[in-house]
Amino acid sequence: MALHNHHGAFRVPELAVPGSGHGTLMGLSFTVKDVFAVAGHRSSAGNPDWLRTHEPAAAHAPAVSRLLQAGAALRGAAHTDELMYSLGGENYHYGTPVNPHGEGRIPGGSSSGPVVAVASGSVDFALGTDTGGSVRVPSAYCGVYGFRPTHGAVDIEGVIPLAPGFDTVGWIAGSAELLLKAGEVLLGQPVRVTDQPGEIQKDKQTGAQTGAQTCEPADMRNGRQTKPHNIKPSGKQTGKQTNTHRLSRMFIPPECWSLAGQECGGYLKLGLNRLQTGSALQTAVMEIAPEGLKTWMDVFRELQGAEIWATHGAWIERERPVFGPDIAARFTWAAGLAGADHSGARSLQRGFAERLRGLLGNDGCLVIPTVPGPAPLRGGDPAQLELNRSGAMMLSCIAGLAGLPQVTLPVAGPGGLPLGLSVIGGYGQDLELLSWVQEVWKQ
Fold it and tell me: By 3-state DSSP, what share of the chain in percent is helix, strand and coil, each rounded to 5?
């Protein structure tokens, strides 16, 4: 039986695959963003021309297979923004899913459909992708839990890419407990440690472009560099991530909190107090971006844009797809980055990542707003929407540049509108972060 689609979350509500195992997710349902390979299904990536020019998948993506083998049932293929290149959730071709907790407001994107499917109660949890905030931003706007893992922690094979050096498989749930339970299934493998931040490489077997991201961080806890931490995930030797490190330090970056303003910041501080009350972490207010978050965002945009064109430029030039006006403008901008020297941006990213990974080690976390405020109104002024997008990207680029795991937690904001409070953990500390949040948030 097809899912109800009252909130417009699904492009293909009739898609259904029963669970194939008897694991920890038995009796639960999930949906996937319409970029995941599902055997026999043709993914759209949010664009009819992509749908037209690609064949159905021959096999499930590994992330999908893991969930099915754990007993969960797949229900529907959910909407995405065009080629995942947006944080708004509005699709020129397929329409905009309805934000269940923000009447008249955008759902956020690009994982708009999976997030709305969870927020509306259509499914228990969902798979999305997160490159520049595409799970975290809509999760905050729609009042649900969302997770972006350490870059490379979850197998991304069988997923349509955007910018491989930043792409991750993320997931969404209605509770911290289910977010952890899904994570225990999806993170049952070692983190893939790669070479250069945001650098485009070629897969030796397929020839497909892939991104690479790694750094050897220096210890900056005392404001000076010392011997680098070994922050490779604890599962590197065991074949999966394990919860062997306990969080003991919390950092609150004032430049991030200033983006939320006084009113929204007040609501978010109630959530921060909840985290602090439920734990015994040493807390310090500390600036993390002396260069300014706008500089970090600009570096992220440049490296992401260059990878996006390297990934999709040939297809765009060959097929001449029809994009919505805002997406078309972004691809035109990305095309202008082709052939440019991005070594300066990569060097800056490497410095950011080293500093942040060294600061957090394996027992530290950052607590920041996920987005500056509630979801913007649909059909709003384009200039204001771009300001909102930039504010969200200044916050979401932090974990993206450093390849770190981030969980967003729902907080009630002004007028009951959803806000998001985020915790960013150390490199490879995904399960520890999810476990800690599940423990302290329920108290």
Answer: 35, 20, 45
* Pairwise CA distance, residues 89 & 403, whole Å: 24
User: Is 2 within the bounds of a domain?
Assistant: no
Q: Report in angstroms the alpha-carbon separations of 366 from 175, 179, 435.
A: 21, 19, 16
The percent of residues in the chain predicted with pLDDT above 90, rounded, is 81
Q: Is the pLDDT of residue 112 over 80?
A: yes
| Closest residue by Cα to residue 172 from 108, 134, 126 | 126
CB atoms inside a 10 Å sphere around CB 382? 10
Residue 53 lies in a domain: yes
Give the CATH number for residue 266: 3.90.1300.10
Domain that holds residue 115: 10-441
Catalytic residue list contains 227: no
The DSSP-derived string for 131-163 is SSSTTHHHHHHHT-EEEEPPTTSS--TTB--S-
Question: Which among 141, 156, 165, 122 has a CA at the least distance from the CA of 35?
Answer: 156
For the chain, give the percent of residues with pLDDT over 70.
86
For the residues 36-43, what does the mean pLDDT come to? 99
Cβ atoms within 10 A of the Cβ of 49, count?
Answer: 18
Assess contact for 29 and 4: CB atoms under 8 A.
no
Number of domains, the chain: 1
Averaged pLDDT for residues 351-365: 97
pLDDT at residue number 1: 61
Per the residue annotation, which of 29, 110, 422, 435 is the catalytic one? 110
- Position 3 in a domain: no
The two beta strands, 125-130 and 73-78, are unpaired
Q: Check if 343 is active-site.
A: no
Inter-residue contact 165 to 199 (CB < 8 Å): yes
Distance from the Cα of residue 371 to its chain's centroid? 13
Degrees to nearest 5, angle at CA 345 with 341 and 347: 105
DSSP 108-136: -SSSHHHHHHHHTTSSSEEEEEESSSTTH
Question: Of the residues 65, 112, 122, 134, which is catalytic?
Answer: 134
Rounded CA separation 84/64 (Å)? 19
Look at residue 5 and tell me if it is in a domain: no
Catalytic residue, candidates 33, 111, 122, 234: 33
Q: Active site includes 202?
A: no
Report d(CA 87, CA 18) in Å as an integer: 31
Residues 6+ apart with CB under 8 A from 173: 118, 124, 125, 126, 144, 145, 179, 182
Task: Give the separation between CA 166 and CA 194, rounded to whole angstroms.
Answer: 12
